[in-house]
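Q: Got a minute? One more chain.
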Amino acid sequence: MDNGMDNMLDMYLFETNSLLEQLDELLIEAEKNEEFTTDDVNEIFRAMHTIKGSSAMMEFNSLMTIAHRIEDLFFYVRENGIDSLNSTDKSELFNLTFKSTDVLRGEVEKLENNEPLSTNIDSMTSEINSFLNKISGTGEPEEAPAAKEEETEVKAAVGNEAGQKLVESFGSKCPFFLQIFFDEGCGMENLRAFMLVNALHGTEMEFEFYPEDVESNGATSESIIDHGFFVGLHSQEDVNKAIAVVEEQGSIQTYEVIHVQEKKPEAEAPKAAEEAPKAAPVQAEPAKGNPAVKEVAGAQPQQHAKQSLISVNLSKLDALQAIVGEIVITESMVASSPELQGLKLDSFLKSTRQLRKLTDDLQDISMSLRMVSISGTFQKMNRIVRDMKKALNKDVRLTIIGEDTEIDKTIIDSISDPIMHIVRNSMDHGIETTKEERIAAGKDPQGELILSASHTGSEVIISISDDGQGMDTEKILAKAARNGLLTKPESEYSKKEILALLMLPGFSTNEEVTEFSGRGVGMDVVKKNVESVGGTISITSELGQGSCTTLKIPLTMAIVDGMEIRVGRSIFTIPISNIRQSIKIARENVLHDAKGNELVKIMDEFYPIIRLHEFYNIEPEVTNIEDGILIWVEAGDHSYCMFVDELLGERQIVVKPLPSYLNSFNIKDYGISGCTILGDGNISIILEVMNLYNAANV
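A: Always. Here it is, folded:
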């Protein structure tokens, strides 16, 4: 039972968080347009109805109460039309809805952190009720108009007591009913009925259901067992839609379509009977209860596909990926076993090629399962910018680029907070305080904040840039000196190194010394979070023009194609995506620049040469440029050649992150991004082409 409750809680949290994210996006877009559409109002009403019902079922009273009040509010707006509100009321409605979703999100976070929910939410509910009273001009929220009570033939179908309640609830509004019975002994019939109701809400059709309080009243299970669960529908088209949903649900034993007509005068009865369409009830097994009906609608319904989406715990995907990685390593160890070298084994080689193909397909599928779009994280920034615009009285637009870029789910969770912190810094300290300052600087009065994401080889590049006032490196350097953070004379610091000081612990203080105070608040934590997933962070800025923070995020564990190379007795791996060509050259083709650095001409362009044995201080077997191999590589805007002893061949490699304690040595800055296990069990260092170039300073 405990496991069942845990699963219910997971389902509740997933659904509620999804609804709150959808509401945020809807509200942001509606506020940009300065108007709620009819669809917006209906969507908010449905979302709050769902949150109310599921929260009541889980007995989360604070969430249920707030959602119920907002549902009442949007019921009034739906019934009276958004045009019934003046511009001030509309603005207040936006703010109140944003505030309510924030409170709901705060309560959900308490559930996620195993903290107790709020017991006093009177302030929030009073604010909602006061606004509703204000716009309605009454002291009580309006209720939905009661259906006109008319006698129908449904009584004969479901028994007197249940039939009478249906008549009172629905009247003649619904000429069609679905009578649904769940699997015998399945338990929690009211919960299963509520899940069906939520699924039907997704069709966006109007419907009624009985019992009406399944989300909060466990006692309704007995009625559902005895008489079934009823869904009232308005048309044959709605019946077909509802049947499609019902057939996708689990634990449903049987269902029956009931077509109800109003009582006719006895003289008309024979004619009505002649015209009434006849068909057998649709059911998997004989229906329970009393199935006698005056008319059954339609013919055998069309079969529909089962639900094609499932939710999977992330830990299971982690375990799957780990196993796939080990399979890839084991396959490599078998195929390159020293005992097999030199033997002519045609059938074995054919089998290993087929095994390689299958492992390639397996790793592609396992990786794709973990990939999610970054759009959800980026869209959340709309809300941050919206709130800070109001708080700081700044006019700023947010531009989002590459929101469809997919990243590992674990990484998305780890970088959401860093991105949010950087966006806040840009809003608070980057964009100028007033429009007048921007106009005086020759800029658009409206500031711009750009969020972008893109794939570059095996890493994802995320940038957060603004066109604000930029950063004064002299003031940053002076502040770092006052805080005792410098490790060498001020004159020896490059611009890049000065900006990197912002991410040192202790750079920022509470005192307001310059306009850049606070620019580094928490940036050391941001850097730590980014590095925890194997990423790097850098800052660029031009005084008066703006700033850009760039995150480079590799996958913490990926399976990629790599080229193994040898330098002395050390083996390195270069991602194939970074390699353009491998060449051998004559000594006379090597030139030198003014500083003595080696260059080689390829296709009418000159490229610097980095000798890996010199860079990493490795004892080489080859020093003569003609005896070794040049590997022409590129990353971003940089392209150069690595000089190595030998190419060992292409391999599919499992990228493993380096131990976290190595982060303190900044080895990523020297072109080392991770490692992999070779077929013989040895370790190969994976080179990061861009950082190696920057570290070599060629």
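A: DSSP finds 21 helices and 22 strands in the chain.
Q: Perfect, thanks.
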